[in-house]
Each structure stands twice: as structure tokens, then as C-alpha cells.
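Q: Could you write out the predicted structure for this multi-component system? I'm mainly interested in how the pieces pack against one another.
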Amino acid sequence: MRIGEVSKLTGFSADTLRWYEKIGLLKRKPRALGESNYRVYDQAMIERLFAIRQLKGFGFTLKEIEELFAMDEDSGLQCSSLTELMERKRKALQEKIKELQKMEAKLKYVAQTCQGNCKEMLEI
Amino acid sequence: MRIGEVSKLTGFSADTLRWYEKIGLLKRKPRALGESNYRVYDQAMIERLFAIRQLKGFGFTLKEIEELFAMDEDSGLQCSSLTELMERKRKALQEKIKELQKMEAKLKYVAQTCQGNCKEMLEI
DNA sequence: CTACAGCATGGAGTATACTCCAGAGTCAAG
DNA sequence: CTTGACTCTGGAGTATACTCCATGCTGTAG
């Protein structure tokens, strides 16, 4: 498959696919003799793209996904290591959530109790 | 007050103070005749810095804070407009929170139920 | 054979909020 | 008068994840 087709199939733009290659998240297949310079994607690469989609949905950054793939290729990814990574990511997410919830609560408080003098409440 | 003192007082680094000035969040006082080129901060500026601190804590971006100050200088900020802004920010925060909570829930699910085959569950 | 869609490359631009640095000017104490 | 701390300016760098663009090559339909 060529880049346009893969783009339609996966929903990643062609630019994004090239970008993923550039940062090492996706390896480009070396071209066979006499083959054009166009990128060719095989089934394994398509699957990897869906995995990337999944992992992004779990909150992993591209860098983390890359490291994860590297671990997998390196020594075979153990479920225990993966679980640990997920737990760590989960804790980070929880902290971020708490932070946002605090902001939200503060906003709610000011907006609901200001009675005409929210500027003072916000100390503006 | 000069920049170093203000930095200590407010906790914003000197670089940050200059940065805020550059993006228009803080106006530099014009220098008086014969005065040096050093920045001088008066009480009003210090207060504005504390307001910025507050508003950042409420989740407003610098750009939003700037717009807010502009509205205030322009026509005097009405509590009703401010409340509306806060409500909008609050909704945005809530959506972000929901999104993160979904990620967290998915991670929790996989991590807790994988039983040795989390790779399959993650579709890696 | 030619037109045109599709692809390649390298580089710049976007958004956010700074941080760091070099090179030079300024101020106050001793 | 010198030293050292402080400040100035302009510009580059950081992190994240792309997007957009110009210019030029490639593949295929008619």
C-alpha cells in the first residue's frame, strides 16, 4: 500500500505518517531493486499504526510509545513491565485530573458566589 | 522596584517578567528624564502580577488573561462578562477532565484484567 | 504522449510559556 | 577607580505533535 491509501485506512494524514517515520516511530521499508521511491506499507506497519492509535488514546506520548516499541523489539515486552508503565501513566493522569478539578472547583466557587464583585474575588 | 526585587517578591523569574512585557501582558513604565534604562515596577504592576498568578491558577492562558485585562481597561470589566468567561473556562476544563478520566479508566481496566496478555488487550 | 493525481524532500510555521545565553551597559560599595 | 552584582537587548532553544508549502519527480488513464 502507498501512503495515500494508508492515510485513508488509518485516518492518519500522509504528513503524519511521514512525521512518525522521521521520529523513528515507524520504520520505512527499504525499497526493492528497481522499485520507485514511494513508501510502501505492509500489514505489520498498518497494525503498528492501529497500535499507535490505541496507545495515544491511553494517554501515552509518541516518545513513550516509541520507547515501548523499542522495549518490545529489544527483549520482548513483558506484561509486567507494560502493566507497570500503565500504572505510572495512570498516576500521572490522576494528578493532572486532580489539578484540573481544583481549578474547576475554584472557578465554580467564584462564579457562583461572587454576587457582583467577582473582580475582588479574583483579586484583579 | 527593579526586576530582581520583583522577581523575589512574586516568584516570577526576571526572564518571565520581561516575557510578560514582550507579549503585552505588562506595560513597561516609560522612563523619567535622566533615569536609567532599568525597568521600574510600581505597586499597581505588582498587583497585576499577583492577579496573573491567580488567573493562571484558575486555568486561564496568558492570552486569555491579556484579553481579560484589555476588556477591563477598555470598558471596565463587568462581573457578568467575567462570570461568563469563567463558566466557559469551567466547561472546557470539565471536558478535558472527562477525557483524561476516560483514559484513566481504560488504563485501569487493562492493567487490572490483563492476566498476562496485556499486549493483546492493547493490540500491540 | 500527455495531462494530472499522487508522492518525495526539506524546511518553515503553529501553539504555549517560558528559559538560557552572549555581549554590553549600570550602579553602589570599598 | 575598580570590582562585582545587577540589568539590558536580541535571539536561539525547549517540549509536543503535527501541518503546510514549494518544487520537482512518478505512475497511470485516455
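A: Regarding packing and overall arrangement: Residues 2-4, 14, 18, 36-39 of chain B lie near DNA strand D (CB under 10 Å from a C1').
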